[in-house]
Specification:
Strand order of the largest sheet of chain B: 3-2-1-9-10
Helix content of chain A: 40-55%
Structural class of chain B: alpha+beta
Order of helices and strands of chain B: HEEEEEHEEEHEHEHEEEHEHEEHHHEHEH
Largest sheet of chain B: 5 strands, mixed
Radius of gyration of chain B: 21 Å
Strand content of chain A: 5-15%
Radius of gyration of chain A: 53 Å
Number of strands of chain B: 18
Distance between the termini of chain A: 112 Å
Shape of chain A: rod-shaped
Helix content of chain B: 25-40%
Number of strands of chain A: 10
Largest interface: A-B, 53 and 59 residues
Oligomer: heterodimer
Number of helices of chain B: 12
Shape of chain B: flat
Strand content of chain B: 25-35%
Chain lengths: 361, 348
Amino acid sequence: MTATGHPGQDMAGVRGAGRGNDHHEEQLDLLFGAETEVVSETGNDNPDSNAGTGEAVVAAPPVVDADASVGQRLRAARERRGWSREDVAGRLKLQISVIRRIEEDDYSGIAHSVYLRGYLTSYSRLLGLPAGLADEIVSTRGEEAPLVSTGTVSRSRYLLDRYSVSATYLILTGLVVGPAVWLATHGGLEQNFARTELLDVAPPQTALAREQARNELTLEPVVAADSAASIAPAAAAVEEAPPIIASMAPFSSLTSAPATPPTPAVATPAATGAHTLTLRLKQASWVEILSASGEKLEYGLLPAGAERSYASDGAISVRLGNAEGAEVVADGEAIDLAPFRRANVAHLKVFGDGARASRVE
Amino acid sequence: MFKGLRGLFSNDLSIDLGTANTLIYVRGQGIVLNEPSVVAIRQERGAGGPRSVAAVGTDAKKMLGRTPGNIVTVRPLKDGVIADFSMTEEMLKQFIRKVHRSRMFRPSPRVLVCVPCGSTQVERRAIKESAESAGARDVFIVEEPMAAAIGAGIPVGEARGSMVLDIGGGTSEVAVISLNGIVYSQSVRIGGDRFDEAIINYVRRNHGTLIGEATAERIKIEVGCAFPQSEVREIEVSGRNLAEGVPRMFTVNSNEILEALHEPLAGIVSAVRSALEQTPPELCSDVAERGIVLTGGGALLCDLDRLISEETGLHVHVADDPLTCVARGGGRALDHIDQHGGDFFAPE
């Protein structure tokens, strides 16, 4: 082993002098002569063998109760070996007062867990007692060293740092949960298409039901004044009438909904006139019907099965979005829409000058 | 820019950025990460091509010495300080991400990093900048012996001297602490890595066989000791025979390792003696009464406390769970910062 400029050169150099690789065991004896002796003493649990080391063995070792304290057990083990407190203090490199306190179970001044555990572990190991003794004492009598600081942080800063995270989580939760709860309670997310109805076509049965309810309300007090209870269902019927809600849903879903079956109803003529135009729809279609004066007789999406009639003295302009599913009858005579179609859209003028129907460019 | 907001969703961390292992303590959760400080780098499309991180920590350590040509395993810290800045940054980034469960926000925690007390200003700045680049919004630096003392439970705030010896992977630090400050400290660049090197050299010299770092570490853990043992332990290992060039099995015993480790251990003992010589007499007597506390992974070497005790004449004992003392101590200091400010932090 060569000496280097290492901080440990003096120790390594002195102790490693004259050493060779083949005789390392003898060199270790030289190197750690004193320590090897300690091992032979401490590694032996049999008190009788201590006679060889020159230690006095106590003839009658004190009897230790099973429920003796840790200090008493350590003291008994020490005395069994015939060691004095000074011997133990010398071997453990501790003050005699520390050994005395441990044996008397008085841990004042050495109660910090880190030191107490160290002292008890070393002492137990020296006497060949289980190391678990230290854990037992440290868990009950040990003190955690408090972290004491000279600096202070202002109260407001401390509170801000401590609670800012919680406050942020709370606000974010409120922002997310609040609207969700509001929407859920106010029905803003209701997707019941069965209850949605078109604004364009007031459902006749709704109007009918409303009319009936009104009649009942007016008639009931007259017919049977004592049956006031029957007013309530009637009033409820009025209130329960489905609200009219504008829908963005495709029309097909409406037609497929069982709650609102298409109601083929013949509308009364919008006005009186010499000519009558009847429109029958097999499929849903966009319909625009203008009178000669430009007045809109029909303007909107009509469901499949609808049948409408319009009376007019002058020409009527008809525009059909789905010409395939529509049938136009002018004064009782069906009009073939094929000549007026462009793609599936038909635009024609009925009752114009000369012809019954003419194409509108 | 949004570090403050992201910080609301991040935990404060105490990082023991060690040469051998990196430990992360999360406030309120304890030690959540304990992985080797190793990064595996993949070189894509040949030399000069882009580099990417193949693995970090335990996965990368498994690759150590077993990689193909396009993957290189790097230990970005050497002797307790940064040897490869970008790799350290990448490793920290991965570790910080690992300890945060939330994937929604990129974490931006307050970080306390422990540095060797012998590190220079440049080295400390490098560690600080590396942590900032890894996403930390505030970086505090504390010296390792101070963190180790707090983690071990030493009453650092008392007007009494306490000596702590922290033996890490790259450095060993000895310090005398009183009134929340380091009165005297000494750092030597000897640690677990030097123990491994010493074992490799010993085996090469005496057995004519070359062994790797991982094997050397296994020998150290299983049969390594710092003091002659009553019972000789043996371990069978394999290495490449230098003369024959083929793998060969051989047996190493604890006495051989004791001899191999003699030189690095002598360096550590010398540092402790030097610290005791330099310590003011009042504090020195406190240390003599209380003894020396050993922390760090090196303290787990069998009977190291007995060796130092015999050499110095003081009582020496190993702290409870010495491997995590530094990280835990850093965590306690970080907990303390909100109420009492940074009394323990080292200047940059």
